[in-house]
Amino acid sequence: MKFNIAVIPGDGIGPEIVKEAKKVLDAVAKKYDHVFDYTEVLMGGASIDVHGIPLTDEAIEVCKKSDAVLMGSIGGNTSTSPWYRLSPDKRPEAGLLKLRKSLNLFANLRPAVLYDELKGACPLKEEIIGDGFDMMIMRELTGGLYFGERSTKEENGVMTAHDSLTYNENEIRRIAKRGFDIAMKRSKKVTSVDKANVLDSSRLWRKVVEEVAKDYPEVTYEHMLVDNCAMQLVKNPGQFDVILTENMFGDILSDEASMVTGSIGMLASASLNDTKFGLYEPSHGSAPDIAGQGIANPLATILSAAMMLRYSFDLDKEADDIENAVKTVLKAGYRTGDIMQDGKTSVGTVEMGDILVKTILGE
Asked: Does the active-site annotation cover 316?
């Protein structure tokens, strides 16, 4: 099968880690007789340097014509980079916001997985960790408080700020359906998180989720208030499979979930629209302080590529190969500097990619 992939190397360590992800994808293509055609486009600081803006209309069109987008990291050092002397709409991150809006990427997936070999990095007690955890935070990305009407005004010497949290049933239904679809590919459990004891928007959220759940009789689902969910993530993270929630709650809970893994260099992410199309990127930043040194961890980007195979291309077996190869390599003791442990073998960015390729191909 042939797939067209738009590739955004980005800034900082982005080009280095994307190169290794492409290397791993090419190994999968060789093993399973697929063809991955890559078209590179600029975004972020790299685009500002060439075009004067963080994202061009031409780059957006390339992405729209592709089957998926694979991205590294964008941005630089906010205190020293000349990009951050520009107005907010001209800075690197503005390109990502524009791309998400242009591609209608409303569903954000952030897996939080505790690998057996990295349990020592988890900040939770061993008795809480148990057999580990593997959850997916499904966050609605284009609605809610972050996109509602807002204002700040002064009246009688008193400043008042206003932010509006709005969802309609169609926005909720499409993210709920995507959450249940993802659960069908995993352990068939959904925890829908809201604040229905206080908010009208959450009561509507709960009503629509219950309607959607009727179409997925194989999936077990439950409702949980967001404050309880925040507590449960550090009390018993192993209970979760898919956490389905709105924009602000998802923003907070996904950061909490990622930190209990203890290894941000391992965290992949995806943003999907209402088709199979998606944008896949690591959850970490561009790390400009180590760019070009060959020591960056490429695993989050490689795992993001595995998510692309699974969710945009329906290549579950190929995605499993990549994920299992990562586990095998970690079990063999190979580590980049950010996840290095005593008694393990330190490797660089390129070497980690090479080892994964050999593992996938059985060499």
From this structure: no
